[in-house]
Amino acid sequence: MTAADIRHRGVPVLPRRIRWSAATAAFQIEGARSEDGRGPSIWDRWVDAPNTVIDGSTAEPGPDSYHRWREDVALAADLGLDRYRFSISWTRVQPDGTGGPNTAGLDYYSRLVDGLLDAGVTPFPTLYHWDLPIAVDDAGGWLSRDTAQRFADYSALVVDRLGDRVKHWYTINEPAMTTLQGYATGELAPGQFLLFDALPTAHHQLLAHGLAARVLRGAGAEAVGVANNHTRVLPLRPGDADHAAVTAYDLLHNRIFADPILTGTYPDLSAFGLAMPIRDGDMEIISARPDFYAVNFYNPTTVTAPTGEDNPIPFDIVPTPGAPVTGFGDEWPIVPGALRDLLLDFARRYPGLPPLIVSENGASFPEPDRAASPCDVDRISYLDGHIRAVGEAIEAGADVEEYTVWSLLDNFEWADGFTQRFGLVHVDFESGARTPKSSYDWYGRVIAENRA
């Protein structure tokens, strides 16, 4: 889609009103690693290790939002956002993951919350976006049940300070990716390669969500939910073998994380010879009805039957035939209709499903490090297709109440460092200068047109 095509087509208008948001995460934008008493997280340890980040970067200073948060609030307000999704750094609030609060760290988030409210933007924080304190990791991390209680204690510190003004909360971001990439395959921090032995981390994160939700609601929260990464799983070929691969991957990526919250039970894991470390009362805590269910969606996943007789994994992930791709290449195919189908599958699979939120959706494309007026037509095309897919899902009966772009700012993209840019706003990582891209203006028009 060219710039002329976009102008001719006009912006997507959904069949009913929803809320509009954009997102960031603390480690990816804040910088200020050693300021205000912030402690080290698993991502600090990751970036300090050799050969873990593609470009050798350490997230410092990155967008430096710790010092430039007023600029970011202004960008959110000028865009017309209803809500701004940001995350709170566990180690900035509780440096060792235990004990009392770090007042200076909470002061930062209190200023940010007040700034958003003054600008007319509802703060929608995430309590955990992957920055586990090193001390907690050394004690077992998400493999340890105790981490769930530590997270609940940390949540109490945050809501005690911010709960008088913040009423909408995400508990944990993408427990699926923490389990699958952080503990099963070691692609992300904490970098463990446990394969199926990583599955207890799924249960402990879901338990942490349930315990934190109790704390938040007890402090007057109006809306609490988890934000998970979900994917539409597609077979490479017709036939029973690839269908079995789809079923296996869907279970491990999607259902293990959604079913306990939405049905109170785990899917059957006996085919893998696995069981979750469930104790009495756990499932009641985990399945206490959320006020929404949030879906981070970027791409579908195509799988096929595994090759090799000794392969312990019951699927192979392969490129999606015929699909264009983002800056990540074959790993991130662009199929907007997959988002529509995923949302409708949730609506059909889970009777009584709470309202859905698309809590992250976006794409990275090659862009210059410095740009006076970035014209990111590819990103506009991606967002246009996916927002229209949300509209189609609503038209077909899915109760979607909010859509969120990842990301408001270019930021540190985990193991890919500063090599991938997702932002509606270009960030010069040397100077910190922010320059709205064409997609920023386009998304602002989408918001305005859908309010008219």
Automatic annotation (TrEMBL):
GO CC, one annotated term: cytosol
Catalytic residues of the enzyme: E174, E360
Keyword Hydrolase (UniProt): yes
Binding of substrate, residues: Q28, H129, N173, Y298, W406, E413, W414
InterPro entries (alphabetical): GH, Glyco_hydro_1, Glyco_hydro_1_AS, Glyco_hydro_1_beta-glucosidase
Keywords attached to this entry: Carbohydrate metabolism, Cellulose degradation, Glycosidase, Hydrolase, Polysaccharide degradation
Family: Belongs to the glycosyl hydrolase 1 family.
Protein's name in the database: Beta-glucosidase
Organism: Gordonia phthalatica
